[in-house]
Write a structure and sequence with these properties.
Elements: H1 6-13, E1 26-31, E2 38-46, E3 49-58, H2 61-74, H3 79-84, H4 87-93, H5 102-122
Antiparallel strand pairs: 1-2, 2-3
Bound molecules: FE2/S2 (inorganic) cluster.
Length: 130
Amino acid sequence: MALYSEKVMDHFRNPRNVGVIEDADAVGEVGNAKCGDIMKMYLKIDGDVVSDVKFETFGCGSAIASSSMATELIKGQPLSEAGRLTNKAVAEALDGLPDYKMHCSVLAEQAIRSALEDYYSRHPEKKPQN
Ligand code: FES
């Protein structure tokens, strides 16, 4: 079996939603101290919905594929759903990642969480009550 699924290769070669949102409503940035990879997420929020999302990832192919897939999974979703996105869901949507690359999908989950935290710190009244 190939090391990486076709979906991973596709999102690595043609990442969706790459870039910066200049007037973003929220920005999250995370890094992995071990590998040194960095991921930045920009969110545009309309009401309670993630209306747009872009990312910049300085990292490995799996991190790029994970961020690309993560942006696709939360775009158009309510904030509450975006906040529930797990790295497992990202990896599953990519048809799997090798075990030693799972931490790359964790970075995507954390980047979204970090962006949402930024948003809730600016708009505490929007924070979903779980
Ligand atoms: Fe660090 Fe992939 S090797 S995020």
